[in-house]
Specification:
The protein is α/β, with parallel strands linked by helices. It has 7 helices and 6 strands, in the order E-H-H-E-H-E-H-H-H-E-H-E-E. The protein starts with a strand and ends in a 16-residue tail after the last strand. The mean pLDDT is 96.
């Protein structure tokens, strides 16, 4: 069975301030995030990898390149792995969003399938991109996919064939690893969730996600 390792990018500077980044407010990894990326290298040192797929955004690419430079693995940028376009939310703090867009924020935490971000996209478009990535990519060797919280959640909903309104049931930490098995002999759904949010490699390096804007 081929394995896919879904990696949420390491902590970014905007994460530490609770700011929504989306696609346009793209910050570097924080000091903690750079340490988390190094911890990911140790996690994957004994894994025979073929390729690293990454979102084009800075925080994901920096995480992917930290891995590639140490592991000697090719990096492929895929736009389908990009974060949700949060529109007018991007660059604003979680606290500002709660006040200025209270109704949409409440819907985002309860019925994401119905949310259209002002000036941005509908969350179902994010899910469609994640599905397009799975449908258009042939995984014939163990690979890493470095992407964003929303995309990892979307992948899980798609693979588990769950309602996307249940995405908040999962806890996806920065620099955590979610493992997916791939077996193309399974005709209907070749994907199987093996492990969610593995974080043993982050001992002493956990981010405070209660601050983050998700």
């Amino acid at each position: 069975m081929t394995k896919l390792y879904l990696v949420r990018h390491a902590e970014s500077v905007a994460n530490t301030f609770g700011i929504y980044q989306g696609q346009s407010y793209d910050t570097d990894l924080s000091d903690l995030g750079r340490k988390q990326a190094k911890a990911l290298v140790n996690f994957f040192k004994k894994v025979d990898l073929g390729v690293i797929y990454t979102s084009p955004l800075k925080r994901a690419k920096q995480t992917a390149l930290a891995l590639a430079n140490e592991l000697g693995v090719e990096v492929r940028v895929d736009v389908n792995l990009i974060e949700t376009n949060h529109g007018e939310w991007e660059g604003l703090s979680k606290e500002e969003i709660k006040t200025k867009y209270s109704d949409i924020y409440k819907a985002w935490l309860t019925k994401p399938s119905e949310v259209v971000f002002p000036g941005g996209e509908a969350f179902v478009e994010t899910v469609a991109r994640a599905e397009a990535f799975l449908n258009s990519t042939i995984f014939d060797e163990d690979s890493i996919v470095v992407t964003h919280d929303n995309i990892v959640r979307a992948f899980l909903a798609i693979i588990l064939e769950e309602d996307i309104d249940r995405i908040w049931n999962y806890k996806i930490e920065p620099a955590s690893v979610t493992m997916i098995g791939v077996d193309y002999l399974r005709s209907l759904n070749p994907y199987k969730v093996l492990q969610v949010n593995e974080k043993k490699h982050l001992k002493g390096l956990m981010a405070d996600i209660s601050v983050h804007a998700l």
